[in-house]
Inverse folding.
């Protein structure tokens, strides 16, 4: 059969929603933990699914244990959308903490159970289902849809999205949808950047029994600097007029998810002193100490601005011999609220859920940045139950999975000129 209208495609998709639930469950049944494991088996499953749907696909990448799959439907010219999803999952961890087998893929009345249901095999199932349905519908696309299935998001993305973006797979795209878990109420349109700040303190060694009389304790010196780390948290993001509403939305959402008073995490630098190393033995005055501080940068904050504040923090402590270095450096990034991909997803999410869906910025970061760095308007929107993500007893609601699948299909119809 061949469909010509969006409504015909929708009816076809609605008749296949059980397949979408089963596909999610099938993906859960294939363990694909990262780190430690491999994504070989789940990637083979995805390739088979696409081939059986009549979609030509190709395995690409630079690490056979963490391969990617790319595919493309439609014609060369016209609007080009990328659909991205990762098939690696964080380790299940201590099995005694789970109320069910994390890899059973069990389907209950309301939910699908298991590691990776929300993050993000339900999202992956949704975009695979969307591509298959559009091909089955036989509609003519006024543009093309590219699929990026990646297998290395949970360990940084080096073999996944980063590799695809660095090797020409995202060129000339007009939009990108990353099906990461957001809940149906939120479309993520921006995220914070990140700096690893390495503070190094140098002292003078002496016998520990003479501490206070001889030597210079590098640990105590660094401690004095770290007392002022909150100076970094005072730096605020900068937002344009058309970003103000998304900022307000984001602060409300952050407060709801993390507790009252946490909304400021969105538009302020956050600073976590995560690692400290120093000293050799208790009976020696330490001559070296190092701390690594994870800084997250709101939209609009520059590296230079943060460096100025780091220098001021060291100066304020009044100690000599403390230096700093910057490790990984990424700026906050965003997509405009009126980008076609944002408007399409918002329109259909609101239509199907009958409630307001808010574009917002997130406080963490994800693969979306790699596409935004290439200038591609990129959003994240996907089914999720936040509770079990990166924890135990991860689940996803069947209603959420099914509606997300339909929202993807309807939005793609809009972007591909199918009325
Ligand atoms: Zn994820």
């Amino acid at each position: 059969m061949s469909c010509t209208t969006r409504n015909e495609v929708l009816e076809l998709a609605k008749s296949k929603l059980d397949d979408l639930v089963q596909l999610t469950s099938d993906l859960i049944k294939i363990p694909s933990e990262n780190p430690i494991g491999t994504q070989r088996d789940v990637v083979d499953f995805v390739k088979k699914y696409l081939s059986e749907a009549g979609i030509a696909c190709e395995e690409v990448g630079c690490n056979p244990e963490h391969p990617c799959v790319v595919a493309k439907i439609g014609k060369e010219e016209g609007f080009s959308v990328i659909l991205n999803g990762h098939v690696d999952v964080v380790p299940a961890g201590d099995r005694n903490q789970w109320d069910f087998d994390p890899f059973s893929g069990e389907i209950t009345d309301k939910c699908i159970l298991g590691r990776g249901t929300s993050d993000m095999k339900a999202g992956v199932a949704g975009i695979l289902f969307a591509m298959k349905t559009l091909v089955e519908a036989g509609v003519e696309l006024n543009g093309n849809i590219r699929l990026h299935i990646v297998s290395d998001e949970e360990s940084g993305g080096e073999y996944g999205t980063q590799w695809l973006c660095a090797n020409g797979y995202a060129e000339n795209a007009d939009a990108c949808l990353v099906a990461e878990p957001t809940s149906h109420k939120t479309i993520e349109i921006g995220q914070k950047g990140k700096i690893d700040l390495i503070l190094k303190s140098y002292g003078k060694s002496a016998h520990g029994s003479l501490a206070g009389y001889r030597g210079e304790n590098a640990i105590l010196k660094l401690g004095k600097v770290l007392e002022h780390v909150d100076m970094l948290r005072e730096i605020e993001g900068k937002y344009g007029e058309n970003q103000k509403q998304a900022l307000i939305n984001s602060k409300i959402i952050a407060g709801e998810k993390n507790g009252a008073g946490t909304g400021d995490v969105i538009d302020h630098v956050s600073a976590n002193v995560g690692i400290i190393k120093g000293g050799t033995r208790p009976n020696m005055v330490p001559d070296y100490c190092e701390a690594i501080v994870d800084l997250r940068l709101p939209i609009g904050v520059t590296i230079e601005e943060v460096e100025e504040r780091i220098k001021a923090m060291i100066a304020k402590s009044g100690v000599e011999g403390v230096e700093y270095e910057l490790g990984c450096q990424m700026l906050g990034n965003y997509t405009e609220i009126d980008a076609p991909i944002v408007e399409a997803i918002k329109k259909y999410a609101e239509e199907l859920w009958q409630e307001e869906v808010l574009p917002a910025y997130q406080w963490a970061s994800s693969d979306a940045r790699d596409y935004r760095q290439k200038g591609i308007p990129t959003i994240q929107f996907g089914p999720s139950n936040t509770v079990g993500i990166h924890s135990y007893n991860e689940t996803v609601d069947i209603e959420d999975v099914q509606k997300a699948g339909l929202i993807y299909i309807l939005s793609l119809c809009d972007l591909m000129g199918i009325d």
Remarks:
- The pocket of zinc ion is lined by residues 86, 119-120, 153, 180 (CB under 6 Å).
- The mean pLDDT is 96.
